[in-house]
């Protein structure tokens, strides 16, 4: 007889996930001998013993440190008991959008998102405070983080003046825990871009290398931020800003960019070839390791022998090169005993060079070969490898335009391609009817460049210093261009401004609304009916707004695992509030669709057709549960707060039994309560 599957009524975990706990778990898997019996803690003395010669026990070592670093690391490890409350009244297209805008301190928010978005973000862009002396630097508390957040919210924040003795330390203490948490959100192919100027670029590089790994550093991009450098500045005027880039894993490669008309103009067809081409190097590196590709080719015009340059070899195998040469005249393979010359090219002793490598030589007398080659030269459409100087020079290779694809991005981004600060301000003014509600925006073309080289049509993008929400604007533009479904998560602390538009969050949200209207109007204008009319791709211009707040549970009355017989949900909190806290704790995407469903007059919430079912109203019956597990929802997770059971212990047992029966039929169901 098969054992019936067990369904437990587990308590909901009310703390965010600590990313470092998964690292410790990996250590336990790799070194089980170092796990302390009973406690499960890691014995670091034993771990050192197991690592043996691979551990550095010397006292002298390179280290990057500052006052407060240990506390900053601890801050990233401290779980959050906060939550994100939905603000439907500030949202746009709540039911259908997959974009998120979160109002709150990004440190707490990054902690809360760990379960739901761990390893899922394809690109992060942040434009943090540059620490110029006038910037606000977040003042993190190691005590009550939500109370600290409330104290800061709605205030114009204090600057971090250079006269402060901990000027750089304060900035690093603010950035370090946030970057540690951000790393855990990046997908294996994910990349983070960070804008910064000279004030903290060196410190950011060191901190980033420590967090992401030196082998994951991609580039220090110089963005040409201005088209008109100041002539009245002291010293050397700054024309560029830094964008430091790290990947989640080593050896990341960017997508290629679209080619420019100027680049394509270099490709021509002087020989009347059907395709445009440019002259390219016929050689490849690695002569010593590719000796079979080091040999002579005889010129049909002069009879001279042409060899690869020193340390180089021909780019293709000999049989393919022979085919190319036969396009000029008839060739053959012949042993010419040129070991000394080939050894010189390979940079090895003559006795070590291969002895069986033949040359590509003319098969007919030189004069006859010259006549054939001259006819090809005059007729046109030369072979892939051709002879320069009307046949009298060396060998070059054709590279065809249609074979080169796009262009690789470099570490210099000129304003002509990626915009400048004045362009960014004009973008904002156009959206806000000539007003300037935000002082330091970035141009959307700059973010578009990052999206172009990093994302595909379904990527998830994050910006947790979102400011004027340029990132959201750029994502919508990218989706409009290629019919993509990229989505974003923006985070911004609701700092008060003097712009007349309220907080920075109010500005960012309004910017998204206005940019969305413009893009929608453009889409209508460019999608005029045609003979073969197709439905334009859906452009997601909405966003769900959430606000950081304390947990919906009465923390002073709740300890995980205790037996509950009272309503622990705070007064004034709604079912929607509790639903999204449950989704966070269970690690579900906050953009998943939510439906209100009904059975026998009882309403319940279903997330993504059964990913999660929440029964939070009084009046729940076993019949309702049986209906839920037998409908199309077939729930994978069920949440029922303890107050729904009240004093009806039999109801609780019967519901657990109903879920157990469903599990025995192949549905694995998790059940949790608070």
From TrEMBL:
InterPro entries: DNA_methylase_N4/N6, DNA_methylase_N6_adenine_CS, N4/N6-MTase_EcoPI_Mod-like, SAM-dependent_MTases_sf. The keyword S-adenosyl-L-methionine applies. SUPFAM superfamilies: S-adenosyl-L-methionine-dependent methyltransferases. Residues 1-11 have a biased composition (Basic and acidic residues). The keyword Repeat does not apply. Keywords: Methyltransferase, S-adenosyl-L-methionine, Transferase. GO terms for molecular function: DNA binding; N-methyltransferase activity. Residues 121-496 form the DNA methylase N-4/N-6 domain. Residues 1-25 are annotated as: Disordered. GO terms for biological process: methylation. Belongs to the N(4)/N(6)-methyltransferase family. This is DNA methylase N-4/N-6 domain-containing protein. The lineage of its organism: Bacteria, Bacillati, Actinomycetota, Actinomycetes, Bifidobacteriales.
